[in-house]
Write a structure and sequence with these properties.
A hairpin with a 5-residue loop joins β5 and β6. Strands 1, 2, 3, 4, 5, 6, 7, 8, 9 and 10 form a ten-stranded antiparallel β-sheet that branches. The chain is 5% helix and 58% strand. The chain is globular, with a radius of gyration of 15 Å. With 149 residues, it is mainly beta.
């Protein structure tokens, strides 16, 4: 399989809401305040109002459920959802939790973004599969999203 860069996406996460222990783990939700994205065929900003729903499972894996509205620099709106997993050695995950910058190669952070838009220029997004690798930073995650060809 081959891939090519679709975009780099950075989101700014507002204060998390710690729901607490739920039947399948520890649930936290975090509103998305802003962000931006840029790639060879599109660029723009992340509109406020999205969110990241996370579930820390008993096996230490963090399930990620991200939902965003992207606005391109020419005004098109794109709905994006992304499901993923993050896990790694306990000391690395603890450093991330403390807000420290950690080399993303030292832990697993992958998601599967999906896109929906009604704008003809970006209709190609409705027909592709993508995978991303993430880098968790104190100010919010950075996703490198590749289109699967």
């Amino acid at each position: 399989m081959e891939s090519r860069l679709l975009m780099t996406l950075q989101v700014a996460v507002a204060g998390p809401h710690k729901i607490g222990a739920v039947p399948h783990g520890m649930r936290v939700t975090a509103p998305i305040a802003s962000g931006h994205f840029e790639g060879p065929r599109l660029r723009g900003k992340v509109l406020p109002g999205g969110g990241d729903w996370t579930l820390l499972r008993g096996d230490g894996v963090l399930e990620l459920d991200l939902r965003l509205t992207l606005e391109t620099d020419d005004g098109a709106l794109i709905h994006m959802t992304s499901f993923g997993l993050r896990h790694g050695p306990p000391e690395v995950i603890a450093a991330i939790a403390r807000g420290e910058r950690v080399d993303p190669s030292t832990y697993y952070f992958r998601t599967t973004p999906r896109f929906e838009t009604g704008h003809p220029k970006y209709a190609f997004l409705n027909r592709l599969l993508a995978v991303s690798s993430g880098d968790r930073r104190a100010e919010g995650p950075i996703y490198t999203i590749d289109e699967i060809l």
